[in-house]
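Predict the 3D structure for this chain.
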Amino acid sequence: MKSKLSILSLAIALPTCLFAQDSLQVMNNTQYPNTFSSGSADVQPFTNSSKRFNDWSISFGAGVPLMQSADLVSIKTSKGSGKDLFGYSAYVSVDKAITHAFGLKLQYDRGETRQGYFNTKDAAPANAAANMQYGARTQYDAISILGDINFSNLLRRVDNKSPFRWALHGYAGIGTLAYRAYLKDETGQRMTKEVKPFKFGSLFGQAGAGLKYKISNRLDLEGRVMYVVTTDDTFDGGGNQYSAINRKNNKSSDNFINTTLGLTVNLGKHESHLMWHDPLQEAYYKINVLESKITDLVVCKNGDADNDGVCDDWDRQLDTPAGARVDGSGVALDVDLDGVIDLYDKCVTVPGSVENNGCPDQTQGQGAVAETETKLEGIEFDLNSDRILPSNTPILNNAVSYINSSDGSYTVVGATDTRGTEAYNQRLSEKRANNVKNYLIQNGVQSGKLDAQGNGKKDLKYPECDPASKCPEWKNRANRRVYFKAK
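Done. Predicted structure below.
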């Protein structure tokens, strides 16, 4: 019942939130005409530079091919003497993820199958019936295009918010197969068939499944089983279709099973790969934010006299001025704690006097201002991004005005959340700090007043968010920030 009410609430609230968001964007564009707009403050065009995941990788591995349905087989399946024969195989591929559940592979295979027992209940040909000494090997090279379906992402439940390290993949594709087949009998070893690549008779197909384990963001381990359809009755080395070997069983096929163990190396500058990316995680975050806003729309039993969103039963300040931002207890915010609430404070981040509307008196001098100004919070970034969001421009424009009116100099400090390696986050924090510094300089701040510094993931606003999985997304987002420190 609770889930149904939640869905109904979302359906009612979404149009209202979208209208309010568009109205806010109109106001932003009016005040800041250079601000990017695409109809919504949270929408940006999807380009290669704005994506937050990698989609290229290289895979390689090795294994054992077994022929069990041909006239000559690898592992003994009928009575007779001799040893089981095992060949070898190897593959390398270049992989491209199209979506989180589908990709393509350009793969090269090379190997050798070894076989030597007849796949028939009848006796061997007369010249071999005494000792079953027939043996064969086939050296092959193959190039194929494979489709890759990530069943774990495709079938993942929408309410499953947990991270995962295992994934089941399915593969299927076609290509060209070149091989040389050799037969060894009482007369010695001779080549029975050779097929060149990219010829009509070299077409083949393969399909199978693989189980991947995520070792790290860069490296995956995979066990794979593929069934290779050679489309050729001479692949096993038995010779042409009229040879003594191939006439023993008309129902056999020269297909083989290839079992391999390999690694996948994910390429790119981002933290995660698209095949491990869950696109619903961002939706979960936005839904949680929306649900929290809906929860705030509670009907107060005893009313809300000052209309500040806090019911009178819990409101510690029942006469909050209209338009003032309040904390959870209904008290008007005073960020710099100078006794002037933010609604009336003309210097919100700098302590000042009540007589001067919250700004420092001129007699205090700019040096005092520099001493009291320690940092300016609120400039946040998307995950794995150093792009300045349109919602940050009002804060940055206020920073331009304040720094220009001050004689002090400032350090622009960048920080990240705890996802990713320390080296990656250090580079990202430096990019964020430099982007903000360049924005301020482009909008009129003297370059000599600013320098930039990246603190990586060591400068957390919420230290308890290490690792990031311990915190809700809004706290991790607050850790991805840039702030100002007076020097």
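The chain has seven helices and 15 strands.
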